[in-house]
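> agent: user asked for a holo structure of the chain below bound to pyridoxal-5'-phosphate. Plan: (1) validate sequence alphabet, (2) canonicalize SMILES, (3) run complex prediction with ligand conditioning, (4) return tokens. Step 1... ok. Step 2... ok. Step 3 dispatched.
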Amino acid sequence: MTATDERTNLDTALTQAREHYVGQRPIGAAMHADASEVMPGGNTRTVLYHPPFPLRIARGAAQRVVDVDGHEYVDMLGEYTAGLYGHSQQPILDAVRAALDDGISLAGHNVYEARLARELVDRFPALELVRFTNSGTEANLMAISLARVVTGRPGIAVARGGYHGGLLYFGGGGSPVNAPYDAVVFDYNDVDGARAAIRENADHLAAVVVEPVLGSGGVIPARRSSSLRCARSRRPMACS
Ligand SMILES: Cc1ncc(COP(=O)(O)O)c(C=O)c1O
């Protein structure tokens, strides 16, 4: 089989898979068309969008979710690890309902946030202070802006293909709606290249922003540099 034949087969298979996906989800398709009339792209969280239209999930319990057309899926995403308890766990539902019963957005600091912050700080040695945000995008924008103020330097270093939020995407040359930070881009898992780029731009950089697993960029786990691996190895001879 020639490369052109393979390509044609792949294109045909992709078209068939797309048609099958659309054909099996008439309610999802209609809801997406409806949503697109009032929201850009019919969604409000870019990372969950995929063509021809994203899954529209009706409900979830434990590790399973069900879309509006009644298809059941095993959720392998788990909110990119934030959903590690699974869906609709009873103790979590009970706690949320109890909090709602006291009222929400009460125009003052609530009685829960410091308790949660204390739990996090006590459990994770790297955490000293916690600021809660509504989204990862907001958290990263605040962290980068803070780093820029503290260091007095304007730029950031990021991995090619990195996703840090709807305004912080560095695949395919970057997104046109990215926040206007100067970004030095290095290749993920090219430790020497990253080091050189960071050193070269050190006077300009406020922060290095990097994912432990390059999620949107292909679910690529980070490798340690060989020097780090050797320094931490219990068997140094294995590194020579
Ligand atoms: C690594 C990473 N950083 C940041 C974000 C942005 O989070 P949010 O979608 O809550 O804005 C995501 C979202 O999926 C992510 O995967």
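> agent: step 4 complete. Summary for user: The mean pLDDT is 91. The chain has three domains: 3-81, 90-123, 136-226.
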